[in-house]
Design brief:
By secondary structure, the chain is α+β, with helices and mostly antiparallel strands. The protein is built from 7 helices and 9 strands. It has 3 domains: 92 residues; 73 residues, SH3 type barrels (Roll); 115 residues, Alpha-Beta Plaits, CATH 3.30.70. It is rod-shaped.
Amino acid sequence: MFDLDAIFNQLSNNLIRDAVITILFFLTLLGLRAGIRRAILSRESLDSAYKLRLLATVRNLALLIFLMGIPLIWGNEIQNFAVSMVAMAAACVLATKEAILCILGAIYRTSGNLYKIGDRIEITGIRGQIIDMSLLSTTLIESSQACANGTVGRCITIPNSLLFNQALYNETVLGGRFATQIVHISIERDDDWKLAEQILMESGNKIVNEYATELARHAQKLTKGFAIQPPLQHAQVRMLLDNVQFLSLHLQLPAPLGHRARIEQRVLREFLTQMPVKTRGIIHLKTDRDHLL
């Protein structure tokens, strides 16, 4: 155990000693300056201009000696104070690290124009529409497409520090109102894949025709505004033979943001209604983030 009384007594003794030395040093320097000044003024052989130059030189030299002597006298105390300040600054940085990162994330978000209120984003597996932004966090309403199993419609607050180490997907950064939705359906090899393809194509095209005019207008605006290739404007089916027992059918169609869950359910219901009962398929949904419209 440290003897605190002894430490405080030692500090007090050091402060008193340095204060006494400083006072003596100042008085000595002041006395020397006064003696030299009196000697200069008493010399009758010197002209007035030269005396003024000597007096100014003595004054400046005394001030310089005083300023150089103070750090030498108070060196230990200055060093201890500097170490304490560095330790305090380091402790403050460690204690407020997350807050500093959040503030820097807000600066990065604003300078990079990453998103704004009303945009639909996805980060760390959380997808939703932004309803509020602050210096430390971003608040969004969880989308119905956020996850397969779990509650949706929740209000979620994420710290801005995530912007530095997590990928951010903004579905509306290009003014997009549509996204390419992909419904993956796997059927057995001996099932009627032609019928399955026909059902998916008819269902997809029927859905796309409901907003075809708006989709074409938006695609034209997107092509002219951002100089990119025209996006998908109709339904299409791709087949993959990536499994020995199953055949994968991928229905791709442009879907309005906010309506993808309902479109998914329509496609799945029509497929299950029209496909023969003997077909036993594995059906799931995926949204392709690389084809936002």
